[in-house]
Amino acid sequence: MSEHTLDARNTLCPMPVIKTQNKIAELSDGDILVVTCTDPGALSDIPAWCRINGHTLKSTDENDDEVIITIQVNA
Predict the structure, then answer these.
(1) Catalytic (active site) residue 13
(2) Any residues with CB less than 8 A from the CB of 20 and at least 6 apart, and which?
(3) What is the number of alpha carbons within 13 Å of residue 62 lying toward its C-beta?
(4) Across the chain, how many H-helices and E-strands are there?
(5) Residue-range domains of the chain with CATH
(6) Residue from 4, 9, 11, 13 carrying the catalytic annotation
(7) How far apart are CA 9 and CA 67, in angstroms?
């Protein structure tokens, strides 16, 4: 298991979800992905995508104008 980061700042819907999907496709079961974005819609879009695709949402945080979402990859 390893931790990876994805910078999806300054992109608008649907790009944060698409970038997350593409990055997770490169990762292994159990890996952690920390996504940083500035699109407030990502707070609902990425967790919904995780539920549909069977990945575990570990946390969501808002820090000033950034949203930080942590996902555990499930094969």
Answers:
(1) yes
(2) 6, 8, 33, 35, 46, 49, 69, 71
(3) 8
(4) 2, 4
(5) 3-72 (3.30.110.40)
(6) 13
(7) 9
Q: Looking at residue 55, what is its pLDDT?
A: 98
Structure tokens given for 55: 């990945």
Give the alpha-carbon dihedral of 31, 36, 42, 47, to 10 degrees.
20
Over 90: is that where the pLDDT of 1 sits? Answer: no
Q: Given a cut of 90, is residue 42 above it in pLDDT?
A: yes
**Per-residue pLDDT tens digits for 6-26:** 999 999 999 999 999 999 999
Angle between helices 42-53 and 15-25 (to 10 degrees): 40
* 0.90 exceeded by pTM: yes
